[in-house]
Amino acid sequence: MKPNKLEIFLGTGFFSGYSPVFPGTAGSFVALFIYLIPGFENPTVMLIFISLATVIGIPLGTKFEHAYGKDPSKFVLDEFVGTWLALITLPKTLIIVVLSFILWRVLDILKPFPARQLERINGGWGIMLDDIVSGVYTLILMLVILQLNIF
Asked: Residue 112 sits in which domain range?
């Protein structure tokens, strides 16, 4: 069964997953724009949205995978979760947001252990888990950078 119109809207990150180039980055940009909404950076707000997107993303990712093949590029709700995890608890300054975003995209593409292994899990779990790991790694690296007083 193919996703319905609402599921397509959500799963494709408000249709950003249909970008002809780098749909994952396009989805991450949409998530970043949502993060830039005043007040969204509140960790409680972010945790609510991360949790909702994950709970929705797992079964929806499975549905997209059944309809469009393994980890379809148009499904970018996982990028939303990874982007938000990479930014949660960080100061909302231009340099930190930009550096975190770049680092997040690099780690999402490189998929450091165990992200690549988790991506191999079938269905929504595999789709979501590798981005969760890369988002958490980004956050940890950013917190280390901040502790080193580089910025």
From this structure: 5-147
